[in-house]
């Protein structure tokens, strides 16, 4: 971000679709000007030409014109359709994340932005990304509604409590760009900002190697799943399995006891952890307890990342894969050795002895 002695009219263009947003915006300005000026001029002209000069005068009879009616119907229709099609194309491009994007988790909180990379690196009110790489942000919030806004990238997205929202971008030039919360979120809303640092790939790699990394989201999720929350006692497979099979479920259809089918995406996994009774998988009993209030948003992100890693190829990002360094992605699905957890005995009431052994479903 260059420091200038003047205030720019528009933010710098620094993403692949910034020029598309600006082009559509300038087109809207041009259309507005093209209609506003003639209408204002006509108002003044007709106001003077047809001003009242005689009380109770009978005006001349006016007849309609089919040509005029047709023209001022067709032209506005064409203009409105070009606006609609242009806006739809820009929207579809901005809010359809590519499959090969590098994923970063974002959690909003009064009044800061917390980011976690797939390598385990964490940031607060800062986001370091490489130039020329597609970046997907999976976002949620710990409290109220926020809005993640990067003016130079011409993109923004609401961050909504209780669900995931997504944003993606590809930065085109290295620099330091402002990051804002664009939704009034409380007393210190104006201070909820930061910077996005776009770096050359070599510099980004040096930044990763020069900063401290904790557990990756997958490693943290596996620790929660296997040890701290005891999920493996029901979901790890084997003769004692009482919960739905999780290997290979992400991105696939899940059949529910109601006969409906849903796609096992991030939102489904999140809801299944916080409200497991809402969507019961066919063939299983509603015995799973809720973890609402027991896990933080960051822990939820980690659990979702781990369950995604159990499906080969799901969530594997170039240069920012979901498995830890040195781990074969295919090994994750076979690593669910169930430790004994305090979730009840094998014959506990509510266990399902008829659970399908190879069900490809999740709850």
Structure characterization notes:
- This protein has helices spanning 18-49, 66-94, 201-210, 217-228, 232-235, 266-274, 297-309; strands at residues 102-109, 112-117, 122-124, 126-130, 134-141, 146-150, 155-159, 165-170, 175-181, 193-199, 253-255, 261-263.
- β2 and β3 form a beta hairpin.
- The protein is elongated, with a radius of gyration of 28 Å.
- α1 runs antiparallel to α2 (66-94), α4 (217-228) packs across α7 (297-309) and α6 packs across α7 (297-309).
- The chain has seven helices and twelve strands.
- Among the domains are: 102-210, Sandwich (Immunoglobulin-like), CATH 2.60.40; 217-334, Cytochrome Bc1 Complex, Chain D, domain 2, CATH 1.10.760.10.
- Strands 3-2-1-5-8 form a five-stranded mixed sheet, with helices on one face. Strands 4-10-9-6-7 form a five-stranded mixed sheet. Strands 11-12 form a two-stranded antiparallel sheet.
- It has 363 residues and is α+β, with helices and mostly antiparallel strands.
- The longest helix has 32 residues, at 18-49.
Q: Helices and strands in order, then pairings?
A:
Layout: H1 18-49, H2 66-94, E1 102-109, E2 112-117, E3 122-124, E4 126-130, E5 134-141, E6 146-150, E7 155-159, E8 165-170, E9 175-181, E10 193-199, H3 201-210, H4 217-228, H5 232-235, E11 253-255, E12 261-263, H6 266-274, H7 297-309
Parallel strand pairs: 1-5, 4-10
Antiparallel strand pairs: 1-2, 2-3, 5-8, 6-7, 6-9, 9-10, 11-12
């Amino acid at each position: 971000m260059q420091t200038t002695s003047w205030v720019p009219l528009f933010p710098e263009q620094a993403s692949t679709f910034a020029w598309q947003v600006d082009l559509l915006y300038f087109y809207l300005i041009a259309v507005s000007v093209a209609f506003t000026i003639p209408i204002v001029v006509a108002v003044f002209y007709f106001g003077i030409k047809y001003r009242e000069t005689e009380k109770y005068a009978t005006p001349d009879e006016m007849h309609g014109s089919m040509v005029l009616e047709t023209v001022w119907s067709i032209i506005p229709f064409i203009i409105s359709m070009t606006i609609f099609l242009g806006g739809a194309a820009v929207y579809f491009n901005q809010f359809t994340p590519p499959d090969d994007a590098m994923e970063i988790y974002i959690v909003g909180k009064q009044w800061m932005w917390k980011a976690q990379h797939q390598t385990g690196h964490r940031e607060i009110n800062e986001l370091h990304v490489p130039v020329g790489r597609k970046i997907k942000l999976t976002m949620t919030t710990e409290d109220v509604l926020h809005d993640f806004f990067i003016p130079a990238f011409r993109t923004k997205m609401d961050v909504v409590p209780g669900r995931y929202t997504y944003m993606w971008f590809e930065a085109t030039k290295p620099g330091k760009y402002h990051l804002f919360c664009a939704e009034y979120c409380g007393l210190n809303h104006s201070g909820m900002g930061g910077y996005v640092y776009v770096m050359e790939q070599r510099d980004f790699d040096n930044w990763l190697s020069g900063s401290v990394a904790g557990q990756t989201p997958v490693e943290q999720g596996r620790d929660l799943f296997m040890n701290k929350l005891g999920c493996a006692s029901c979901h790890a497979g084997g003769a004692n399995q009482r919960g739905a099979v999780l290997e290979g479920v992400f991105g696939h259809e899940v059949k529910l006891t109601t006969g409906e089918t849903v796609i096992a995406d991030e939102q489904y996994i999140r809801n299944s952890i916080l409200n497991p009774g809402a969507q019961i998988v066919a063939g299983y009993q509603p015995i799973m307890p809720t973890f609402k209030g027991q896990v933080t948003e960051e822990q939820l992100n980690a659990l979702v990342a781990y369950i995604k890693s159990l499906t080969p190829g799901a969530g594997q990002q170039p240069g920012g894969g979901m498995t830890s360094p040195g781990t074969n992605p295919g090994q994750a699905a076979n690593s669910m050795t169930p430790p004994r957890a305090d979730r009840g005995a094998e014959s506990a009431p509510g266990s399902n002895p008829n659970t399908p052994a190879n069900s490809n479903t999740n709850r």
